[in-house]
Amino acid sequence: MLIMALVSILAWDLAARQQLDIRRTSNLLIYDQALLYARGMEAWAEQILLRDAAHNSVVSLSQDWAQHLPPLPVDGGTLQGELVDQQGLYNVNNLLNGVAIDPGEMKRFQRLLEVIELPVELADALADWLDPDQDRRFPGGAEDQEYLVAVPPYRAANAKLRSVSELRLIKGFTAENFRRIAPFVTALPERTSINVNTAPLPVLLALAPGLKLQDAEALVEGRGAQGYRDVQSFAEQPTVVAHAAELGAGMGISVGSNWFLAHGRANIAHLSLEFYSLIFRAQNQIRVLMRTQGTL
Description:
alpha+beta
């Protein structure tokens, strides 16, 4: 009887281990399948961007790259995705010009915070995170001394953001504040202009201090489906002419873009894989500079 009991326990244990191995192998195969679909969507995005670059001198929301890819049936599940023009958003790394904070960009970022009803002091904390010194800005700045008392402790980066999700590490950027600002900001490795053909209303409102909601709406209406053909046609808009002094000579705007974000989701069996690819396009050449899963 004892031997039979031991044999039964051993057989049950072996069966359980086998089921666990089968499930583990199945999960790995499903994950690999989802990852291949993600790479496939990335390749699709690259081809769309190259094709649009060959036929269009500007970047606007009427072009093929801007069309959302609805859930498509694939073997074992569905795949969906979209491309987002990152130069239609405010690049938080524009704040850092060399080793100093750019005063003009600081004011523009503060205006964006005001537009989306967030405390303007968040700009101080971000500037301290970017600049190389340990001098705390007033009133909302934060340097190492604030972050070293956190659990776990850490230091200010004193460098450009590698990802926009890094904002969550900065003083004042709570989960709610980050949720509100995330649709309007990006973190790119170089200083960029704002594409007025793809910028959402809050980003357009942040261009100059005197702009009102109706002004930004007029700019959106003026660009139409095809967008402004060049910066000059944007500058000739009555709203822009009226605020030319506030916008400044350079204005920091464009009608083209080099940076795009491919965002997709593969739902395979019981697995949902969300993925992002940061794509750089210039002179009919394309490169993927960053890939992440789950979040940026």
